[in-house]
Design goal:
Helices cover 47% and strands 13% of the residues. It is α/β, with parallel strands linked by helices and 247 residues long. The chain has a domain of 160 residues: P-loop containing nucleotide triphosphate hydrolases (Rossmann fold), CATH 3.40.50.300. The strands form 2 sheets. Strands 2-3-1-4-8 form a 5-stranded parallel β-sheet. Strands 6-5-7 form a 3-stranded antiparallel β-sheet. Helix 3 crosses helix 4, helix 5 packs parallel to helix 7 and helix 8 packs across helix 9. The longest helix has 24 residues. The radius of gyration is 19 Å and the shape is globular.
């Protein structure tokens, strides 16, 4: 059975094996995960990688790889990351296109999250994937009040980054169980900050949802419940919709 290169190999041009062995079907899946902050896209993407035998790509990974390689577009990305500004669509698309051009993610499949974020990005992604089209776009939906509880209740260690919640506190007075550091709420996890992020997401993403719905690729998945429950729903949708004859 063949092995599929992991995202580090795609970025670096090496031939390392994927952390998650290919699934029995060995059929490459090309899937996008949508959903507002706090629905667990990253966690679900990693779980899907294990289930499907493919690899997880996020825009964060792609940006960091471009910066680390010192490519011309990576240097442009670094300027925006240093100032905290949003990376413009045109540069995001160039970075993603550059990595897909290497062939690995297109041939071997991927779970993509964090991209596309705007309608322009979604339209350009379709062009990039013309010969290897997306199988499915899974939109994970969770009620706003649940998202607010998840994120606004989150606390992290300032030293090691260990994550806690007001419903799952460290053993001693907001002192990290792992390293003894102070456990705090991040500035972007306050209710006000989360509400703003959700407003921005809604404004940007409704057109994307409509775009993929019109292409017949969108499936809405209930994101309420435990991680395993949500994962089971996602896998069920993928298994029920992909065409096993198409690569």
């Amino acid at each position: 059975m063949s092995v599929q290169p992991d995202r580090a190999a795609w970025f670096e041009g090496g031939d390392a094996e994927c952390d998650h062995p290919p699934a029995a079907s060995s059929r490459p899946f090309r899937v996008v995960l949508l959903g507002p902050p706090g629905v667990g896209k990253g966690t679900q993407a990693e779980l899907l990688c294990k289930s499907l035998g493919t690899c997880h790509l996020s825009t964060g990974d792609v940006f960091r790889a471009a910066v680390a390689q010192g490519t011309p577009v990576g240097l442009e990305v670094q300027q925006y990351l240093d100032t905290g500004e949003l990376v413009p669509d045109e540069i995001v698309i160039r970075v993603v296109d550059e990595h897909f051009a290497a062939g690995g993610p297109l041939e071997d499949g991927f779970i993509l999250d964090g991209f596309p974020r705007t309608l322009v990005q979604a339209e350009e992604l379709e062009q990039v994937l013309t010969d290897h089209p997306l199988d499915l776009v899974l939109n994970i939906e969770v009620p706003t009040d649940t998202i607010l509880h998840r994120i606004a209740g989150r606390r992290v260690c300032v030293n090691c980054g260990a994550s806690y919640h007001i419903t799952n506190r460290p053993r001693v007075d907001w002192t990290c169980d792992v390293c003894g550091g102070q456990v705090v709420q991040r500035d972007d996890d306050t209710e006000e900050a989360v509400a703003t992020r959700l407003e921005v997401y809604d404004r940007q993403t409704v057109p994307i949802i409509d775009f993929y719905a019109n292409l017949g690729k969108l499936v809405v998945v209930d994101g309420v419940g435990g991680g395993d429950e949500v994962q089971e729903r996602l896998v069920k949708e993928i298994d029920g919709r992909f065409d096993p004859t198409r690569r």
